[in-house]
Amino acid sequence: MTKYEAAQVGEIENGTCKILNIEGRSIGVYYDGKEYFAIRNVCPHEQAELCKGTFSGTTLNSKPHEYIYGMDGEILICPWHGWEFDVKTGQSLVDPNRYRVKVYDVTVEDNRIFVQV
């Protein structure tokens, strides 16, 4: 794997994503206020630019008629059809065993953010 510099610390604001082209792949680097994550910018459903979607949360498993919101800022919602993906694992929330998006390791060194591809 090769490390590519994606940004400087402070360049990507909390809750936003910077889209890069690395080795012919469109990859979004997302900052949740604590950590950086890198995810492929292609939805497996219709190949939409996934990282142009919204970062949000979702309802968690709960009892009937009980709605618990969680994972705030950890869910990437596709802008075309609303498919939801966990930015940490790339797994789809609808069918995690069938659909996923590639995620990449991210490191921070000397105030620089690197993506390993």
Strand order of the largest sheet: 1-9-8-4-3-2
Q: What separation lies between the terminal Cα atoms? A: 5 Å
Any guess at the CATH architecture? 3-layer Sandwich
**Global geometry:** globular
- The counted number of beta strands is 9
Helix content: under 10%
CATH class assignment: Mainly Beta
Describe the structure.
- The mean pLDDT is 95.
- This protein has strands at residues 3-8, 16-22, 25-31, 36-40, 54-60, 68-77, 84-86, 103-109, 112-116.
- 0% of the residues lie in helices and 49% in strands.
- A six-stranded antiparallel beta sheet has the order 1-9-8-4-3-2, with no helix packed on it.
- It is mainly β and 117 residues long.
Would you summarize the structure shown here?
The protein has 117 residues and is mostly beta strands. The protein is 0% helix and 49% strand. The chain contains no helices and 9 strands.
Topology, pairings included?
Layout: E1 3-8, E2 16-22, E3 25-31, E4 36-40, E5 54-60, E6 68-77, E7 84-86, E8 103-109, E9 112-116
Antiparallel strand pairs: 1-9, 2-3, 3-4, 4-8, 5-6, 6-7, 8-9
Descriptive key words:
117 residues, globular, mainly beta, three-stranded antiparallel β-sheet, Rieske Iron-sulfur Protein, six-stranded antiparallel β-sheet
